[in-house]
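Key idea: predict the complex, not the pieces.
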Amino acid sequence: MQAVPLLLIVSSFTFILVSLIPGSVVTTLLGDQGTQAEYALITKRLGLNQPVYVQYWHWFEHAIRGDLGASLQNNQAVTSILNSRIDVTIALVVGTVLVVSVFGISAGIVGALKKGVVRKTIDVISWLGLAVPNFWFGLLLVELFSLIFRVLPSEGFVPFTTSPIEWLRSLVLPIVALSVGPIAVVAKQTREAVVEELGRGYIRTLRASGISERSIVLRHVLKNAAIPVVTVLGVLFAQLLGGTVVVETVFVLPGLGSLAATSVAAHDLPVIEGVAVYFALIVISMNLTIDILYGWLNPKIRLI
Amino acid sequence: MTYQIDSTKELSAFARSGAAHRGLLRRLSGRVSFWVAGAYLTILVFVTVAAPLIAPYNPETSNLVNFSQGPTWSHLLGTDELGRDVFSRLIFGGQVTLLGALEAIITFIAIGVPLGLVAGYLSPRIDRIVMSAIDVVLSLPVIILLLVVGALFAGDLALMITLGVIASPGIVRVVRAATLAVRAELFVKAAEVVGLSKFQILRRHILPRILAPVLVQVSVFAAAAVAIETTLGFLGLDVNPPVPSWGSMVAEGGQQINQQPWLIIPSGVTIAVTILAVGILGDTFREATSKESNLPILSWRHRRGTSSQASVVDRKVADPSPRQREPLAIVPDSLLSVRDLVVGLRTSSGHQILVDRVSFDLQRGATLGLVGESGSGKTLTVLAILGLLPPEIEIVSGSISFGGKDLTSHLDSSWSGLRGKEISFISQEPMLALDPGCSVGNQLSEALRNNRGLNRRESRDAATKLLRRVELPNPSEVARKFPHELSGGMAQRVCVALALTGEPNLLIADEPTTALDVTVQAEILDLLRSIREQTGMAVILVSHDWGVIADSCDRTVVLYAGQVVECATVEEMFFNPQHPYTEGLLSANPHLTIDGPFPSIPGGVPSPEDWPTGCRFQPRCSYAQADCAEEYVEIASIGNLRKTRCLHYEDVGKEKPHEHP
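Result:
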């Protein structure tokens, strides 16, 4: 499994980079008023006077025991900060993956089978989807649905436990904003894959043996065409996590993405490190799911 | 092999012949979207570079009188909350975004191309190191990295360089693959032998060849670079206020969204249109270069095959010369009667004829051989019968009568009662003919449920029975296997089983043994023969192998350049060919030569657009005389259901009048 090296690389890379950030967290903590002595004391207490590799080893030792340290800003345990925010990001990302799969794959199939106006329309929408940046699309959605039609909230998050309906309403616009680009990519990939499968020799055999066109597409083509589509979904997933940084900022959602943005500004190393590790874990579990899907879709790589 | 054939390649070459081969630039120039996108980007670059000259206002000067205005004559795109001119800010902001994208692109190329070349060209060890480094880079969380770099260094430069580095694996892979491919080619090996230095080979042979894929990668990345630069700007990482950038303008607009909704429009639309334009350029490059690399070897011919020639061929079919046309009554007791079947490739000006008025009959229970070289139209003829012609190719005229029904007028939906149940098909590539994602048993039982109306359980038993019938050992085990786990012979047996699911009256086998080993070929033919004897179904066997034809067929139809050139029983055909082409094919057959050099017909089958006037075989024929090239030669009956399309058939087999130059 690639999981362990990935985690190591992600955490050490982030660690080294963050430790290079000028204007250390101590300055942030003390402000301009701190004396030389106070400065030295806090530096020592946080272990910031040690070489980077010692700091990393110290962090790593704790990390493998599930302790990601404490935020430098408010001394809260990083794991508890992250755990309190992860549900927002997971809901956002899973919702987006669902929306992207359903709409992207169906648009791709229709685009592959239909000709003329339908295909042209899907083409144009795909192009727009690829070109419109999600932060801007998010703001457009806010203007349209929050300010003009006043049907959906422009920002904020309501926990599922408080009100499932409000929870859903608070997620609709962020999910749509995050989905638009990936839908275009998935639609394009699906269309190409379906067209390619339809040109393969086995399609002729199926047609010649009397299988209906409907069953050829739904039962045979889709399963084989799904292999490249799933690959693309996996790649998109990693990008979606990046997209949460932007979309959570636009819609003021208390998730991991907006946390990453604010922690970088505050030089809060343990929190950034924690977000990086959580993102990596999410990507790893997604990759695992995709590997399992692959095995089902493609008998050639089935392990047993 | 004189008669090697690959029907899929053949068909796609036909299909592509309409899109004539043009140069990359000429192909690009034909697209409106390419020109619109190119013009927009040119103007954009010009306007941003010349921003200090063009901008009507200082982009950073506040004006607290005219703040938060919509578009007016003095402020074309309005003013922001500090009264700054949006248009001026937009064209100055373009400098940040475009420069940032340029920095990323330069890094992308400067890192990606050399690494790809080194990995692909120098040594496998360096290749391994580079490729594993790429895996590491690919696993990095891009956005976290960019956020951290953004916090680390002020401004855009470091961010965009980082972006170029993180994205470079894409281009490294492409360059490496192209380099490996070029390196494997003979002329590069030859250059190495001749003693050109590695650097010289790189510069002269490899760099020109990787230009096209690099161009595609760069244009695709450029769109991403613009998108990411503006995203970073939106997060406040590219410039510090009051300096404008497109991303930061959207962010400022976002903060004013309640007071002035207009403010996000100019910057957002500009970003989207720019990404769209770069994307269109990239897509056009990609399409143009991928067509370039996929061109069939035949392409030089297609260049000459202009549409005007296609219509000439069309005309030839439309008014055939009236010379001794056979009255073609449908033989009453025949299962299949093909009459004057014309199949053509749709072109802008009509049809490029590929199968030209083919006629033949098949009795119930009989076996008919269709013989001819690659390109003679045999596969298209049988696909026309099955209604399975490729999308661009269609039946132009003629009739196909099967058990009293006319198949040419069949709609897509009405095929379902026919294919599989009454006519079935075996293709020449058993390994490609089965769905790779579906087990043998599932494929068979789906066809059985469909063709015999069985339920799930019955169909599973029937599938095993069928597998036993095609003499596969361990049928229940084979049923669980997937196509990639089968040998070619086993796969072809499964295909035979699949063809038997509906107990058809007619089995069409398109070169069923071509792709198989010699020993397996004989087994499959034996199987087909014994099944035919058991079921009494009629068979059309497409082949170029006289051994196969002699073993299995009653009658034979020889096709050349889309036409039937001779029809006879197998014995007559073998012992007394009445067409020079048949004679040539027979003497070219490895099974019939005892020893000595392998005689074959000089030349090859002409492409449809190059079909000669008069007899189409005449340029390759050693019996050709002056009148052969004069006018269209009709097929003539020479008694006892024998037909030939040769004006001088009496000469065939006798002393040759003269040798063809």
